[in-house]
Amino acid sequence: RIDGEAVDGLPPEADWPAASEGDEGWRGRLAELEAAYRRLHARVQELDDAALDGPVAGSDPTVRGLLLGILQHNAYHGGQIALLAKPEPASAP
After folding, report:
1. Which residues, at least 6 apart from 26, have a Cβ–Cβ distance to it below 8 Å?
2. In three state form, how does the secondary structure of the chain look?
3. How far apart are CA 77 and CA 61, in angstroms?
4. Per-residue confidence (pLDDT) for residue 8, from 0 to 100
5. 57 with 6: CB under 8 angstroms?
6. CA gap 76, 20 in Å, rounded
7. Bridge partners (DSSP) listed for residue 86
């Protein structure tokens, strides 16, 4: 979207790929995610301040709004992971 490509209605297999089984599959998915964020980071580093206020293809927000939305999305899911990883409180006897 930052480069002007509208993304409308990804096919389900691209939006929600099938779960990979086992540790190897999980590590592969994590590597794909990390690679995607490295590409995004590299692209954002190339933007100048004016580009941040430019429109996003196929969406209402600016590039700045899109990036802030990505940060909020990740913070939300990071919070979910932290809650799931938190130990259950001990039950009263």
Report:
1. 20
2. CCCCCCCCCCCHHHHCCCCCCHHHHHHHHHHHHHHHHHHHHHHHHHCCHHHHCCECCCCCCEHHHHHHHHHHHHHHHHHHHHHHHCCCCCCCC
3. 21
4. 75
5. yes
6. 24
7. none
Tens digit of pLDDT for each residue in 15-66?
777 776 778 888 888 898 899 999 999 999 999 999 999 998 877 789 999 9
Q: How far apart are CA 63 and CA 53, in angstroms?
A: 6
Map tokens 């809650």 to a residue.
Answer: 83
More confident residue, 85 or 12: 85
Q: Give the pTM.
A: 0.75
Q: Are 56 and 2 in contact (CB under 8 A)?
A: yes
